[in-house]
Specification:
Layout: H1 5-58, H2 61-108, H3 113-120, H4 127-216, H5 218-223, H6 227-279, H7 288-327, H8 330-336, H9 347-350, H10 353-367
Length: 382
Amino acid sequence: NEETLPMERPQLKQIDIAFIQTFVLLSVFVQCFCFISVQLVIYQVGLIPSQFYEVLSEKNYGKLKNLVLFAVMLILINSTLKSLDQYISSLLYVSWRKSLTEELHSTYFNGHVYYTLNVLCKDIDNPDQRISQDVERLCKQMSTMASRLLISPFTVTYYTYQCFNSAGWIGFVSIFGYFVVGSIINKILIGPIVSMLVEQEKLEGDFRFKHMQIRVNAESAAFYRAGKVEHMRTDRRLQMLLSTQRSLMNKELWLYIGVNTFDYLGSILSYILIAIPIFAGDYDGLTPGELSALVSKNAFVCIYLINCFTQLIDLSTTVSDVYLELVGLSNLLTRIGGLDTKVDWSWYDVLSPGEMQRLCFARLFYLQPKYAGQWPMGAHQT
């Protein structure tokens, strides 16, 4: 029996891994199915107001009663499917965190690895935080992205087709152009704000550090009677911080104007687009009630299509954040003010050894060279 134990353990481990892989694939498939079903039900729920317009214009009590029952049924189905999607997402999060953390634990506690990482290796910072917090954030983000990453192209394609059917090719091109123009303008407006936010965070840190310095050296300051001097220096830090915040608020005003303008323009864009075929005579055969239903349906499709494009942008931002979290560079990106910010200092004079190591790994992930080597200290690449 003792001779068979070493053979049974790898087999049991392989069975566990296969079971976990099957469970994860099944969970992702069920979540994708729920998400697709939710999108189809949302489309039907979005058409309910247009059907109410038609039924009320006809003053048909029987159709109204059936429509109310149908709407309540769709709302219950939609609520159930969305709740099931969130529940499966939570199960995926727990399953992925369990598998990843247990695998890290088996490596971390193998031999004296935990001692080497915490005491001997100075270039790997906070391994306990990587295992306890970073894994949790990674699994949480991946669980929320899994179904949306797979279903978003389907959703955009479906609502693009519906928009083309109701408003023609002009409707889709106009919505796409509206979204692109709005994104470019918001990008231009948000550019100066990023550097100002970085400056504000720096001054906030200086202000906190000044108060911490006074707290630590309170006895020395009292001995030298430096209260008035420290009062002036602390107020000076406060005035610099408040001045930067005022400048930030002035720049944010234009961003808020741009965002709110495009939000409200999107609400009337659908009516402008459907007005083109209406005035062209394409729907002259419809009754007033049917025409009202068509306008309501087109408004829902256009607004939801704009929302789908917005979700794609949010999803791409989340994916980029996940990649930064994988190499531990998200805090560094915040510190320098963004990828497009030009810095006037040497990276290797400012970064910690751990940050330099992660930056090198990020370059390897991005460039993907066939070979990679380590340069000696003090050597320069030619």
